[in-house]
Amino acid sequence: MTSTINRLVGASVSALLATTSIVSAQSMDELIEGARAEGMLTTIALPHDWCGYGAVIQGFKEKYPFLTINELNPDAGSADELEAIRANRNNTGPQAPDVIDVGFAFGPAAKEEGLIQPYKVSTWDTIPDAAKDAEGYWYGDYYGVLAFAVNTDLVDEIPQDWEDLLKPEYANSVALAGDPRASNQAILAVQAAGLARGAEAGEAAGQAGLEFFAELNQAGNFVPVIGKAGTLAQGATPIVIQWDYNALSSRDTLAGNPPVEVVVPASGVVAGVYVQAISAYAPHPNAAKLWMEYLYSDEGQLGWLAGYCHPIRFNDLAQRGVIPNDLMEALPPAEAYEAAVFPTLDEQEATKAVITGGWDQVVGANVQ
């Protein structure tokens, strides 16, 4: 898996990175005392059912009870998070986020715009080089792969790969977890379908993915509804293509009513990485750094894994044998992730342009 992750960031990202001094982690005593004086940490866009964030936040509260956690807009997207920093540059009040958790492409963009500040956690060396900014401005936190969440009350034969979705038994059954004209998750799902057909990542995969979904739509199998746990359970979207951690969380939330099976497809396995960063204008910079130290500790990383997200330090945790067996057993088989592809920024941008620009013309389904 390490070699796969190391392909995550291509030359396009390297070109964005200028050389500056290395930022080292402060001592924990200094951070704790500084955070104690600040008294608060402001987060944004952290829904409690995403990656186990509810338990992670609670764990942080219990470890540092002197901090009040101010949670802004749990349902915000990555673009909203950056806008919150921009809008509060000169505001040290409760609407100014200290930390952000954003999609991969947003890390370099935020650095280039001067919206984030560098900080290297004490476990920095165990984060794969290709999944972090060399200067410490942003750093991968967790990743997942696109999978099929299947309502087995309604679907008898469980699809195992993308081409299976074209079969007539899946009429009016298959949905994306977002609008591919706007949602990164949905865009990457379309690209995954293209990769499964042998196309190269980037424009070619985007075009092949559009053609796949055009066939799916023409076959009457595609449902132009944004799939989620509710639509999966109600039968409006018996098969939802979404991040594995969201699919597994939905399975748990539904608790067998209906039963849900989560399948990582046999081909076209696309992984998506999210990244952490500290606002350049953070009102509580010590609390922000303490939060990062917690997230990148073994405890924080295992908290994400309990929420079905593969933490970025997964390889280090596995090699040291600190991952509990019950956490591993709750995930799809490890071999399902071995062929995972981590698209580079250039590839993601090329794919996005093809899919957002061509969806209406090629597929013609108004997802909402």
Structurally, how many domains make up the residues?
2
Beta-strand percent range: 5-15%
Structural class: alpha+beta
Mean pLDDT: 90
Shape annotation:
globular
**Main sheet overview:** 8 strands, mixed
Which architecture of the largest domain would the CATH scheme give at its second level?
3-Layer(aba) Sandwich
Computed CA radius of gyration, to the nearest angstrom: 20 Å
Q: Return the CATH class of the largest domain.
A: Alpha Beta
Enumerate the spans where pLDDT stays under 50 for 5 or more consecutive residues: 1-22
CATH-derived topology of the largest domain: D-Maltodextrin-Binding Protein, domain 2
Question: Please, how many helices?
Answer: 15
What report would you give on this structure?
The chain is of the alpha+beta class and 368 residues long. It has 2 domains: 2-143 and 272-332, 3-Layer(aba) Sandwich (D-Maltodextrin-Binding Protein, domain 2); 152-270 and 341-362, D-Maltodextrin-Binding Protein, domain 2 (3-Layer(aba) Sandwich), CATH 3.40.190.10. Helix content is 39%, strand content 14%. The chain contains 15 helices and 10 strands. It has helices at residues 2-5, 11-14, 28-38, 53-63, 78-87, 106-113, 184-196, 203-218, 229-234, 244-254, 285-295, 298-306, 314-319, 325-329, 345-362; strands at 40-44, 68-72, 99-103, 116-117, 139-151, 174-176, 239-243, 260-263, 271-279, 310-311. Strands 3, 4, 5, 6, 7, 8, 9 and 10 form an 8-stranded mixed beta sheet that branches. Helix 4 links the parallel strand 1 and strand 2. The protein is globular, with a radius of gyration of 20 Å. The chain starts with a helix and ends in a 6-residue tail after the last helix. The model is unreliable at 1-22 (pLDDT under 50). It holds the Pfam family SBP_bac_6. Residues 1-25 form the signal peptide. This is ABC transporter substrate-binding protein.
